[in-house]
Amino acid sequence: MSAAKIIPGGFTTVQIVTEEVKEICIKVKSEMEKKTGIHFKDYIPLLYKSQVVAGTNYLVKVDICQENGQKEDKCVHAMIFQALPCYGGELTVTGVLHPKTLMDPLVHF
Predict the structure, then answer these.
(1) Quick check: 25 and 60 in contact, CB under 8 A?
(2) Fewer Cβ neighbours under 10 Å: the N or C end of the chain?
(3) How far apart are CA 20 and CA 78, in angstroms?
């Protein structure tokens, strides 16, 4: 996939997750589980968009497998905000959409 195109005032185009975005997703996994009420057996960040504001918004598609081992075409779409370093760099899950499928587009919510 080529470099993301930045849309002025909006999100970048969809990209394959980077190591940095994977690390962010791993750090907020338990918060996402709380918001969905589901324990994820598998948790594989796939795609993301980002938007620079007073920090960075990440809209991420994560492939999941529920604890009972049933593997379906299920994903979680999560909005994650990372504050600027001068404000502590804190990560917050600001929204979660579930269930989603692998084919569902990443759309701001």
Answers:
(1) yes
(2) N
(3) 16
Q: In what order do the strands lie in the sheet with 55-66?
A: 15-16, 40-53, 55-66, 75-83, 91-100
Beta-strand ranges (E) seen in 1-109 are: 15-16, 40-53, 55-66, 75-83, 91-100
Which CATH number does 15-100 carry? Answer: 3.10.450.10
The whole-model pTM stands at 0.86
User: In the chain, what are the domain boundaries?
Assistant: 15-100
30: amino acid identity, one letter: S
pLDDT digits (tens, 9 = 90+) for 15-24: 999 999 999 9
* CA dist., res. 60 & res. 90, Å (int): 17
